[in-house]
Amino acid sequence: MKIKAAAAALEHVEDGMRLGIGTGSTAEEFVRLLAEKVASGFRIEGVPTSERTARLCLELGVQLKSLDELPELDLTIDGADEVDGRLRLIKGGGGALLREKIVAAASRRMIVIADESKVVDVLGAFKLPIEVNPFGQVATRIAIEKVASRLGLTGEISVRNSGDGPFKTDGGHLILDASFGRIPDADALAGELNAIPGVVEHGLFIGIASLAIIAGPEEARILTAS
Ligand SMILES: O=C[C@H](O)[C@H](O)[C@H](O)COP(=O)(O)O
Predict the structure, then answer these.
(1) For residue 76, which of 14, 64, 121, 222 sits 20 to 30 Å off, Cα-Cα?
(2) Does residue 40 contact residue 10 with C-beta atoms inside 8 Å?
């Protein structure tokens, strides 16, 4: 299903485009298909959303530029952990949310690629990743808990671990995973999280995606914001 969504997204990529390239297992299927096309003469200028994606692109011969070299992009293709009917997303399961959001925001369009399991009525079953500065992380977590409680959200907020210690993002930050279960007012939560000083970024992508390609066992369908 991931390959199917990736293949459908590739049809939106035109020769010569400046392309943001997402992170995660679905985005990696896209990179593989893109690399085959590039090998046969298709030209794109790619900006990766993580070191992990950059490594795969370089391994497969997809040439990259930095976002500073190409600060305005035509299109970003990326996966998601959850997608709702208004094309609001939870992202950051792989810890790449900060660069993903910066790259998507610098793009004229963002296309999400995902399988049916990612589509939800209400965001929040997937733990919301919140990227925080290591400095004062306990104070930041307490501030997040207060915001959550004001919005009627409960559930554990824990530091993500990578096996041999806290997980570090490409930017050297920590991830707090918030198990809210349901986030009835994702817009309000996003606004409140943005206002907490130690929060670097959060995994709620609101008003960023233009289209989602959702692959099921039979075919891929298109989701637009409703
Ligand atoms: O940080 C990671 C990204 O936001 C991914 O795009 C997201 O976690 C989806 O990944 P996957 O396609 O592996 O489910």
Answers:
(1) 121
(2) no
